[in-house]
Description:
Structural class: alpha+beta
Number of helices: 6
Helix content: 40-55%
Shape: elongated
Largest sheet: 3 strands, antiparallel
Number of strands: 5
Strand content: 5-15%
Order of helices and strands: HEEHHEHHHEE
Number of domains: 2
Strand order of the largest sheet: 1-2-3
Mean pLDDT: 79
Radius of gyration: 21 Å
Amino acid sequence: MAAANKVLDLDRLADRPIVRINGKEYQLLTNNTIPPLAGHRFWKCAERQQTLVLAENPSEDDLAEMAALPDRMCRLVLMASDDVHAALTDVQRMEIVEAFLQPPRQEPPAESGATTAAERSTGVTKLLDSPGSTEATH
């Protein structure tokens, strides 16, 4: 008997977090989805940033490099156009970098009567305190 054909679903492999900027959604790479060269560049930037932050007497060139690193790192992990990246503030860039550094969220195991994935992703769950009670909490 022939084995069933298996399908490689690339859409499921690239399930990435979303960053919303001015009402539009952009995909954020993760450690599992970042291309190897981009990942190498990202970690080199992170290492350099750490070195510059810890420097006791950074030069003007060091300060200029330190100022450029958040943009460089953000461009490596956020799938957005140059215009979107150019409009971000350094604080926003660092928040995006911090989001990249967070471990991916795991889906909780499904239970009888479990909420939907959409409800879990928005932080909404239903409590069944007593028969007939379906109070939503955040």
